């Protein structure tokens, strides 16, 4: 009987299967024709619910023939419904075209950032953009492993990042062009840098969760500022959509580094933000009591878990005329690194360096990152709109670096015994901040033929490093056991104050007039800007030494804590009278004229920009400098031409030529000298701007929702490129300085491939960039004089790549997205090839960074009610940053630490550890 029932059930199942069928469909945006990802699809009778995949498709299986009804809904789109008949086989592939449900005000559309921040919106902007550009959408940023804009940048084709001392991304290198060759914008407005030396902006200041999207311009048109040979980075902040939105997230995590060792900190709460000179006057004689003890009060502990959170609110009022968005982000993280550094020196006439000592360096850093963004916009009518937005970012970094340097009889060779030791500990608080306020207007006249846009901008950037304190101990280690460490240095304790502030006032004006010739259009554009930048820079330094009776006291025997030391100030009035205390200004006037011709098959944009620059400085305490004050005045004409040829609705060719410049930073032209730990550095008042001709060609294919294939090539010819090299003092040949200079003409060319493809729930993002560059700079080598037999230094020319340029850069991300079950998973890998990290004064002695792969991952699970849980993991492979010199000295082979491999000599390795984060997100919209 049981067997009969089993056979009967099997026959019934087969009969049902024979009559069951499936239906497939595709959901598109009616206006753009692009597929919509994540739309909700509901089948009635029987009721089934699914979501469109990453390619916009959906499927229902196991259906019976007959009448059925499907409805499709998605945020900001009108719900549509279709009734049809399910056949037993050969069902027609259903297509749904959804119309926007954006709210309108007197024919002015209020666009939702729920659309503009999506991957589909990003691909649409890339396709329609005048410039050659790449965009990372706000949604992609949200589900990525990255917490700062700097780390997001590494996912973009042609971009590599330069990391700070804790392994976090800090600066972007575009197409092999050093960070100095790009600029940073917020909502299209250029912002100043808080850096004390250079004009490029540290991108680790910006929390990524404040962004609607991140745009990278790889070419320029005349209406963009011209000092971007490498390109421009534009952070588009969150906007006010057509309805109420609330986004909030809170997360916590830990750094694997501090499971293996303690976190070292100091008491920064009582740091004096002004030096004794500023507090008491220029004739005041400082004593030890004028300095805080907190910077020498070291603590070893397990740090608290990292804490990260953000909140954004947005709504429209007054019948959608008034839009308001408020957003804030806070990140309190504990990071660090373990570093091994081998110092080298050129030995005799050998072309390669010999290792002289070894340093262990342990960094512990607490970073507190705050970001605030607010925007108010008011729509009067279809022709007139005003907006006011403000952005504030602040990064406080408390860093303690503990280092020990070991030398054996003048070289590093542990087999010699009796190590000479130097312990150096530095406690430093750095606070950087940027503020930008922009009032912007959009106006249309004469039936929208004439458009006028204007902006009034105030920006400021500040960098403050108060009471930067270092202390060093000298001693000896006998038989690797007994250590005797004492304050035998002349000035073992230093206290340094550094501060600089930039303030910008700027005005922008853009006019556009449109002519129409049948189906063709011609836009004529003109405009300009004026910016007044004022910089103040302050530097002061105090040296402290033990009294004669205390100079040889032994640490751990005669005293236990650095705060117990009795010190005498060697320079009681300070060292404010130096060339790093100065005022400077930069005034830029610019104007442009351009045209934009649009037809069915061709878009042509051309014109020229003129920029006039007045850059000046004034040393407040000149000390015999040849140029205590100086000024550079120059005018540049920057032509450009861009063409887009439409091969089809989804494919196009994009070509561009533009001329651009790179101005020196204030620090680079001020003839000051600063003594760093490893070398001296000074400015060059004769430094000239760099000029470059830039050529680009890219094939662009956008086959489906969020998909693309971009294949391009670029070439840059740079006149008077600015590079840092070691140079001998013209008046005192024995002194060597690290200083900027102009070096002839450099060439940089390469190719890029950018590919995004989705297969229902699976996606792949991949890009690869090849870059080759060359520049010729002077190097020093040593030869034996055949007449005297003496060793003498001679200068030779050497060709090398540009500083910071990697020949190979690649990214690949594997994505999984299940909209129905609420899953988003991403595994991302980034490869950066070898590149020059430091340019040496000696031939064949440049320091190269070893190529490396960084692996990151993230996952998010969404639940009903707008709640989701996410995890992020960074540096999963614990990939170190390693520096090496090409070639080796035979003496280095005697060191039994595997420092020589494949003919290269390892000189530094930094390990940062893995970082993990788990959090909760809530969305209401």
Automatic annotation (TrEMBL):
Task: List localization entries.
Answer: Cell outer membrane
- Signal sequence extent: 1-20
**Domain TonB-dependent receptor plug, chain residue ranges per copy:** 127-231
Keyword vocabulary terms for this entry: Cell outer membrane, Membrane, Receptor, Signal, TonB box
Give the matching InterPro entries.
Beta-barrel_TonB, Beta-barrel_TonB_sf, CarboxyPept-like_regulatory, Plug_dom, Plug_dom_sf
Key word Membrane present in the record?
yes
Statement: the UniProt record of this protein carries the keyword Metal-binding: no
Q: Which residues form the TonB-dependent receptor-like beta-barrel domain?
A: 384-876
- Enumerate the Gene3D superfamilies for this protein: Carboxypeptidase-like, regulatory domain (2.60.40.1120), TonB-dependent receptor, beta-barrel domain (2.40.170.20), TonB-dependent receptor, plug domain (2.170.130.10)
Read off the Pfam families from this record: CarbopepD_reg_2, Plug, TonB_dep_Rec_b-barrel
PANTHER family of this UniProt entry?
A: PLUG DOMAIN-CONTAINING PROTEIN (PTHR40980), TONB-DEPENDENT RECEPTOR-LIKE BETA-BARREL DOMAIN-CONTAINING PROTEIN (PTHR40980:SF4)
Please give the family membership noted in the entry: Belongs to the TonB-dependent receptor family.
Which protein, by its recorded name, is this?
Answer: TonB-dependent receptor domain-containing protein
């Amino acid at each position: 009987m049981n067997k009969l029932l089993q056979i009967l059930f099997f026959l019934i199942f087969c009969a049902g299967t024979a009559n069951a069928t499936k239906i497939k469909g595709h959901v598109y945006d009616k206006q753009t024709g692009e597929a919509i990802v994540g739309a909700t699809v509901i089948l009635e009778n029987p009721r089934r619910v699914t979501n469109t995949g990453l390619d916009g498709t959906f499927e229902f299986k196991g259906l019976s023939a007959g009448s059925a009804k499907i409805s499709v809904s998605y945020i900001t789109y009108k719900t549509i419904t279709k009734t049809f008949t399910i056949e037993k086989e050969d069902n027609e592939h259903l297509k749904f075209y959804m119309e926007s449900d954006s709210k309108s005000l007197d024919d002015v559309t209020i666009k939702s950032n729920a659309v503009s921040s999506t991957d589909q919106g990003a691909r649409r902007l890339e396709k329609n953009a005048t410039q050659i550009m790449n965009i990372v959408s706000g949604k992609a940023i949200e589900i990525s492993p990255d917490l700062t804009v700097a780390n997001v940048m590494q996912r973009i084709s042609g971009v590599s990042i330069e990391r700070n001392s804790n392994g976090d991304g800090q600066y972007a290198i575009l197409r092999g062009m050093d960070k100095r060759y790009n600029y940073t914008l917020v909502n299209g407005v250029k912002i100043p840098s808080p850096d004390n030396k250079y004009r490029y902006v540290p991108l680790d200041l910006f929390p990524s969760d404040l962004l609607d999207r991140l745009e990278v311009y790889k070419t320029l048109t005349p209406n963009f500022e011209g000092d971007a040979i490498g390109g421009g980075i534009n952070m588009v902040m969150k906007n006010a959509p057509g309805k109420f939105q609330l986004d909030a997230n809170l997360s916590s995590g830990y750094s694997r580094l501090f499971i293996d060792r303690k976190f070292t900190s100091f008491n920064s709460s009582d740091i004096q933000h002004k030096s004794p000179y500023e507090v008491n006057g220029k004739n005041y004689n400082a004593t030890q009591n004028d300095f805080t003890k907190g910077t020498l009060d070291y603590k070893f502990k397990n740090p608290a878990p990292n804490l990260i959170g953000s909140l954004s609110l947005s709504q429209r009022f007054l019948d959608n005329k008034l839009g308001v968005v408020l957003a804030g982000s806070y990140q309190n993280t504990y990071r660090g690194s373990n570093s091994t550094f081998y110092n080298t020196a050129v030995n005799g006439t050998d072309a390669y360096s010999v290792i002289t000592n070894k340093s262990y360096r342990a960094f512990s850093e607490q970073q507190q990152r705050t970001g605030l963004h607010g925007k108010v916009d008011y729509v009067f009518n279809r022709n007139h709109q005003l907006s006011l937005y403000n952005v504030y970012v602040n990064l406080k970094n408390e860093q303690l670096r503990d280092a020990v340097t070991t030398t054996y009889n003048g070289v590093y060779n542990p087999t010699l015994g009796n190590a000479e030791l130097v312990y150096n500990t530095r406690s430093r608080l750095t606070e950087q901040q940027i503020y930008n306020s922009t009032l912007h207007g959009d106006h249309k006249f004469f039936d929208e033929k004439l458009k006028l846009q204007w902006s009034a901008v105030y920006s400021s950037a500040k960098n403050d490093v108060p009471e930067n304190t270092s202390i060093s101990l000298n001693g000896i280690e006998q038989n690797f056991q007994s250590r005797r460490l004492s304050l035998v240095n002349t000035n073992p304790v230093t206290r340094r104050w550094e501060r600089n502030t930039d303030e910008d006032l700027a005005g922008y004006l853009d006019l556009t007039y449109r002519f129409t010739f049948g189906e063709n259009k011609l836009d004529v554009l003109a405009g300009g800007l004026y910016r007044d930048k004022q910089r103040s820079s302050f530097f002061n330094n105090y040296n402290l030494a033990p009294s004669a009776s205390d100079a040889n006291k032994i640490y751990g025997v005669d005293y236990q804590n650095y705060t117990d030391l009795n010190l005498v100030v060697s320079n009681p009035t300070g060292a404010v009278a130096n060339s790093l205390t100065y005022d400077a200004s930069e005034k830029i006037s610019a104007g442009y004229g351009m045209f934009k011709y649009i037809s069915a098959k061709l878009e042509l944009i051309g014109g020229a920009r003129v920029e006039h620059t007045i850059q000046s400085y004034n040393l407040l305490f000149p000390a015999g400098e040849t140029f205590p004050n100086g000024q550079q005045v120059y005018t540049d004409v920057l032509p450009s031409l861009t063409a887009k040829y439409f091969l089809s609705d989804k494919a196009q060719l994009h070509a561009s030529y533009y001329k651009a410049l790179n101005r020196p930073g204030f620090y680079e032209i001020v003839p000051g000298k600063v003594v760093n730990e490893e070398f001296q550095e000074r400015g060059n008042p004769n430094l000239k701007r760099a000029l470059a001709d830039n050529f680009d060609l890219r094939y662009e294919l956008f086959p489906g929702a969020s998909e693309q294939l971009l294949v391009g090539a670029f070439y840059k010819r740079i006149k008077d490129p600015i590079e840092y090299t070691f140079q001998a003092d013209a008046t005192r040949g024995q002194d060597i300085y690290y200083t900027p200079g102009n070096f002839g003409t450099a060439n940089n060319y390469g190719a890029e491939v950018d590919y995004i493809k989705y297969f229902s729930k699976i996606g792949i993002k991949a890009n690869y960039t090849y870059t080759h560059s060359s520049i010729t700079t002077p190097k020093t080598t040593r030869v034996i004089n055949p007449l005297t037999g003496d060793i003498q230094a001679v200068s030779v020319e050497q060709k090398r790549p540009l500083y910071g340029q990697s020949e190979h850069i690649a990214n690949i991300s594997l994505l999984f997205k299940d909209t129905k079950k609420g899953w988003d998973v991403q595994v991302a890998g980034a490869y950066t090839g070898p590149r020059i990290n430091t340019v040496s004064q000696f031939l064949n002695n440049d320091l190269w960074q070893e190529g490396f792969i960084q692996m990151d991952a993230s996952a998010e699970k969404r639940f009903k009610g707008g709640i989701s849980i996410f995890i992020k993991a960074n540096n999963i492979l614990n990939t170190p940053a390693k520096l090496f010199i090409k070639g080796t000295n035979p003496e280095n082979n005697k060191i039994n630490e595997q420092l020589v491999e494949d003919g290269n000599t390892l000189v530094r390795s930094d390990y940062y550890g893995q970082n993990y984060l788990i959090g909760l997100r809530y969305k209401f919209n």
